[in-house]
Design brief:
218 residues; two-stranded antiparallel ribbon; binds zinc ion; 13% helix; 10 strands; alpha/beta; seven-stranded mixed barrel
């Protein structure tokens, strides 16, 4: 649990905080924590109910989200979510992540888990409260590039891997290949490079997606 020099291993939390004002997809119920018991009012404990969209904040998509016969959240292969990962910085000039943009990142052959840091991370860094439709996402040909490269996981720093209002092709191509999809990451304080990713989606039976805690270590 400790690094080679005796210090505690660096843990970078790339999870977005869940709170009532978190931006969420238009039409979503978002996230709400409602206190139902209260020590100060004589109850035996503080307790609350959580209401949330399964795609709120940092979460994974299960293939069933876009594929009628797809895997549901409780059956996701956790080995894809844990292990060496590479954080790549997409230049802010790119408003979409195409195959050409991915080629330009010069990602090493060994990389199996790719996290894409884009200008989206600034939305989290400046605690933007409204949903941002102009987020950077992966085009259909970018999705095919990811499949052809044989990645096990792709992650991005806003609420969808595919552009707002785009057809579902990006999701369909990536989820059909059983590539793990991690969305809603905050990579604003993460330098590009190699890390160990640890991400565990909640075991939601029949889930089309699941909230997750995601951290990087190095
Ligand atoms: Zn999602």
């Amino acid at each position: 649990l400790f690094g080679g020099k005796g210090g505690a291993m660096e843990i970078i939390d790339i999870t977005v905080a869940l709170h009532d004002a978190i931006p969420s997809w238009p039409g979503s119920c978002g996230f709400k924590l409602t206190q139902v018991t209260d020590l100060q009012h004589g109850d035996g404990c503080n307790g609350s109910h959580v209401t949330m969209d399964s795609h709120c904040g940092t979460h994974v998509d299960a293939p069933w989200h876009f594929l009628p016969d797809g895997t549901t959240a409780e059956r996701l292969d956790l080995s894809k979510f844990i292990g060496p990962a590479y954080v790549a910085k997409v230049d802010d000039a790119h408003r979409a992540i195409t195959a050409a943009v991915l080629d330009g990142l010069k990602i090493a052959k060994e990389v199996k888990r790719l996290l894409l840091r884009t200008s989206n991370s600034l939305f989290w860094a400046r605690q933007e409260r409204s949903f941002q439709k102009n987020f950077v996402a992966i085009t259909a040909d970018g999705a095919q590039w990811i499949v052809d490269r044989g990645l096990e996981l792709v992650g991005i720093d806003y609420l969808s891997i595919q552009p707002f209002d785009a057809p579902s092709t990006t999701h369909q191509v990536i989820l059909s290949a059983e590539i793990a999809v991690l969305e809603g990451l905050n990579l604003s304080s993460v330098e590009p490079g190699e890390y160990e990713l640890i991400c565990l989606p909640l075991k939601v039976v029949g889930g089309d997606g699941a909230p997750a805690r995601a951290i990087l270590r190095r």
